[in-house]
Specification:
single chain, about 290 residues, alpha/beta, 12 strands, binds NADP nicotinamide-adenine-dinucleotide phosphate
Length: about 290
Amino acid sequence: MKNSFFANTELIGLIGHPIKHSYSPFIQNYALERMGVDAIYLAFDVPTENLKNAINSITALGLKGLNVTLPHKEKIIKFLDELSEEASIIGAVNTVVNDHGKLIGYNTDANGILETLLPYKDAITGTKVAVVGAGGSARAVIYTLLRYFRPEEVNIINRTQQRADTLMNYFSLKMRYDSFHTYDLFPPDNLEILSNSKLIINATTIGMFPDVEDSITDLEESFNEDQIVFDLVYNPTKTNFLKMAERQGANVVGGLKMLIAQAAKSFELWTGAEMPVNEISQQLEKNIADVSRQ
Ligand code: NAP
């Protein structure tokens, strides 16, 4: 990887808290180097009390832009000058572009979700889907499903059912869709919902490193070979939830494809260049395998 930077080298940041385990610096620096863009991508651990100062530093220091991750995706909006259409509907931002001092927020997670599910578009459209989670990424999932896949029914399952209700009410109004149901995350009740869904998406942190034994359900009967099962979690690359679904014959998709697709869209917004996604995907998988062997 490039190891010389000069006075003209531009800076792109990632802010979140915690940030230590992010793969984004690997992906973005590999792409910058590969595409010959004179910029560096660095991660900054920014607790919520420093968010406003961190945003001010984008224009003060002339950063090209930022990626934004947990827990700032929603809170950052009030500090920005403008939002793209999808960020404004989703109500969360994961990418900021510094356009000559004007800070514009985008949500490229939606693009990552779309790219991941596009191969299954015909299978998903007009069917019942289950979305587990009601946080920032669940908002991007629901937006993308309603905008591009028009499911017959969306079932939102969440530990805090009230947050699922809030999401249902918000998207019912915002996207004029009235086929929502919400449920508490309590497996016996959910068996029927999950097993009758063509598409099941985990948009929670359940099963994420270091809690790799956890899963949104322990019931293998939740899955069958007609289903598509997508886990946004990318560390580990195949969660227990996906392994269980795979044993029942479901088509399973891990979070890495989405991670790279959302990164590619952010890269394009900052640099105008196309990220070599296949090459980066191979390099990232190799890097993850190397690290896990250490
Ligand atoms: P978030 O806004 O903090 O939402 C977290 C969600 O997880 C909420 O629904 C929360 O339920 C639920 N949750 C957390 N701990 C739980 C537990 N112990 N038991 C049951 N439910 C629990 O997070 P987010 O931004 O939506 O991210 C969710 C996941 O998506 C993370 O793993 C993140 O890494 C992944 N993600 C992946 C990509 C990608 O490119 N692959 C992109 C974005 C996010 P409550 O509402 O009850 O708190």
